[in-house]
Each structure stands twice: as structure tokens, then as C-alpha cells.
Amino acid sequence: MRLELRDIDGASTLDAWFAIYEQNFPLLEERESRDGFAAVLRLNDEPSVQHAMGPWREFVLGIYHDDELVGGLVFGATASATHRSAGYGASVQIIYLFNQLSVRGHLRFGSVMAAMEARVRGHYRLGPTERIAYFFEANQPEEMTENQLSRDEQISGMGPYERYRKWLHLHARPLRFHYVQPALDPEAEACPYLDLFTLSLDHPEGMSSRMLQQHLHAFVSISVLKGRDAYRDNHFAAMTHELDECERVPYVAPADARLQRIEHRPVHAESMASLVNSPRETLHNEYKWWLRLHLLEDRAHLAKAVIGLANSGGGHVVLGYVDPRTQAGGDRHWVAAPRPPDCRGYNVDAINEIISTYASPAVHCDLDLVWSDRFGQEHPVITVPSGGSTPIVPCQAIVVHGRDGKPRTALSRGACYVRLPGPRTDAAVTADDWSIVLDRVVRERISQQLRHRR
């Protein structure tokens, strides 16, 4: 699947773009209004604002698949003599990056960086060797309430912990200072649970505080406060005072206790109630019917699902749901299947006996029977941990016979199953497939070394 980034042009396209954006940013304190976007774009050409608070240029791009709008990118850029003295030609604030679930996992971050760099170099006429500093905000999950965490994950399809980890794995680093984004409009509230990240790790001691203050003043004044000087905002004034106290803002080290907690928090640490009341498959949640664990084919389905999730960072297998692709009438929503009369076979020992029989190395899973208010019955929820420092593969094959009597391999010995966009569980084949499990293995080995050193 090939995705392309293009500039948004026209009000009708902006309306379609905003509809997708609104689905991906459920929390009001994080979300810009459509009128807010339009106001900022008008300020691109407002000389008095640009002279007093800029320069600042905001760009709104669409992500397209075969001419269909499927996502968007918003970023802004500024440049100054302070930037040049710090060794940069300009700086970029990546403000929003989002896409529909159907294409999630297919957009390469390198193409996003290339699109931003081309536009910033062209607008500020930068030479090929002039560096650009990149910044962005990310929800700090340990500062969020349980309700905020749950709502974010339920609507966007990706939890704040997982999103934070993805940025760390792209070699971005949060900056060690207290960052608060002022309110996006007078009726909203400031957003205090954000970390400011940078992708620019050029100086070992951190980012120039003077350049960062210059960058944030332009970004907050124009993009956030819509032409009101950020120095008059109490939250920004507090950040400015903190930046004035140092020459460089250090990066948060990978061994930092808070980063380690986020890195090693199980992906599956989310609301069990949400799993059974609002069933939706993601890269970390897989739904199955009422598996009959005494049947070889169903044992293969369970083993394959657990191995795929463990190799992909962990998650859940939830039993007792009908796959929407098998329903008549075109219904695309997962629904609960009637509960069988005897569910005593769904216990933690039975689950782990199957996993230890077919997975190498074995992983220990937990099992909870979770009541669904929506469907009026309990569902088994199997919690799968992230795999350790080696890939997990089936240690034996399972061959079953179809209705036509022909043999079919339901579980392949030695195959490295992973969760792939779709979502689906399949054996790793391409370099992108293998990177899912290899990146996790490498991170785990590095973490083991760090823990050993401490």
C-alpha cells in the first residue's frame, strides 16, 4: 500500500480532512477546532503578527491512498538568528499526525520527514547543509487520569503508553523540563499532561534553551493562541522562566525511571471492560469465537494468536465474539456469540498448557472472566505478555483436515508469527514484518543490560 502526502487545498477538502482528524483526537483539551485551523492558516499571511511573533509558517497536508483522503499532517516552522547561532537553519513543530485505522502501519515516517523538510527548506530558502530541529508533543501517560487513558485508546485505537513507546523507538527523546500547552481557545483548558520531544539529538548535552524558547514563542503565540503573545500567558511565562535558568535543556536519558516504567508497562494494561463492551481488533487485541480447546484446530488458533501478540509487544486474546466478516447482511461490528453452557474449560491452566506445548520459548498468560454489560455475559480475556529477548516460534506444527478431506497446516513449526496491519496475525516475511519482532528483541536485550548495570 502506497500513501502520499499532499497539501490541502479548498474548504471541502479541509472539511473531509477535519472529520478524520476529529476521530483521532478525542480529548477536547488536545483538539483544535475547524475554525481554529482556518484562523491559524490566515495568520500565515498576516504581516503584523508575523513581524511581532514570527516568523511562523503552518502547513496542513493530507495523506492519500489512491486519491482517497485517509489522514493528515500539520506542522509549523520558524527560523531566526538565534537558530543560526545554535547551529540550525530552522525548527519544526510536528503538531498533528493521524490516519484511519484501515491504513495504520503503512505510512513510513521517513516519507513524513521528507515532506516536512522539502517544504521548510523551500519556504526559508535553506541550504542543503543547514540543519532543521524537530519537536513535537506527546501525551505523558503517567500524568493522565484513568478516564483520559481509556477514552484516548478507545477512540483513537492506540493507547498513550503504546504511542509514547513508538516515539521512543523512533529515537526521539523527551526534553527534561515542565512543558504545558496553553489552552487552544478561551473555552478550553491548558493541557498539562504533555512531554515535549525532539528528534534532533545533535548536541550531547541537550537542546539550546534560547533557540527552544524562540521556537516555542512563535509556535504558541500563533498556532496555539491565534495571534496573542505567548509571553502574556501564565503557563508560557512559567516555561520561559525555567528555560532562562539553563543554557541547554537536557534530554531525558533512556535509563530514566519514568521512561523505564513506560517502556516496560505491558501493552495490555488497559480497561478490561472496554475490551468486552466495545470490541474492536487492533494490533494488540485479537478476538476469537468460543474456541473449543480440546480440538486441534482451535488449539492452533489460540497458539498462533498468543505467539503473534507476544512477538509484537503483548496484548489480549478475547474469546466469544463473532468475526464481522462472517456475518450476513454486511454487519462490520464485532458482536458477542452466545455463551456455551459449560465454560469450565476456560481456565489459566488449560490456556498455558496449550501455549507451553506449542510455543518456544513459552510465555505465561493470565486469564480473567470479564462481565460485559453490553452483551450480558462473561467473556474470557487472555492477557499476553510481551516476549523476552528472543523471538517466539511454534515448536511443533499442527496439521488439520478440511471439509474436503485435504490436509492443511494450521500452525507452522518455526514460523515467526506477528501482528500486521489489517489487523491480522501472520508469519513474518518482509523486512518490515521482521522489524516488528527484531526491534522488540533488541530493546529487551538493551534493557536487560541497563538493569544489570544498575
SSE blueprint and pairings:
Layout: E1 4-7, H1 11-24, H2 34-43, H3 47-53, E2 57-65, E3 68-78, H4 81-85, E4 90-99, H5 109-124, E5 132-139, H6 146-156, H7 160-169, E6 173-174, E7 194-198, E8 207-208, H8 209-224, H9 234-244, E9 248-249, H10 257-264, H11 272-277, E10 285-288, H12 296-311, E11 315-319, E12 321-322, E13 335-336, H13 348-358, E14 359-360, E15 366-372, E16 377-384, E17 393-394, E18 398-401, E19 407-411, E20 417-420, E21 424-427, H14 431-453
Parallel strand pairs: 4-5, 10-11
Antiparallel strand pairs: 1-2, 2-3, 3-4, 5-7, 6-7, 8-9, 11-16, 12-13, 14-17, 15-16, 18-19, 20-21
Tell me what the structure shows.
The protein contains 14 helices and 21 strands. The model has no long low-confidence stretch (mean pLDDT 88). α12 links the parallel β10 (285-288) and β11 (315-319). It has helices spanning 11-24, 34-43, 47-53, 81-85, 109-124, 146-156, 160-169, 209-224, 234-244, 257-264, 272-277, 296-311, 348-358, 431-453; strands spanning 4-7, 57-65, 68-78, 90-99, 132-139, 173-174, 194-198, 207-208, 248-249, 285-288, 315-319, 321-322, 335-336, 359-360, 366-372, 377-384, 393-394, 398-401, 407-411, 417-420, 424-427. It has two domains: 4-262, Gcn5-related N-acetyltransferase (GNAT) (Aminopeptidase); 271-453, 2-Layer Sandwich (Methyltransferase, Cobalt-precorrin-4 Transmethylase, Domain 2). The strands form seven sheets. Strands 1-2-3-4-5-7-6 form a seven-stranded mixed beta sheet, sandwiched between helices. Strands 10-11-16-15 form a four-stranded mixed beta sheet. α8 packs antiparallel against α9 and α12 crosses α13.
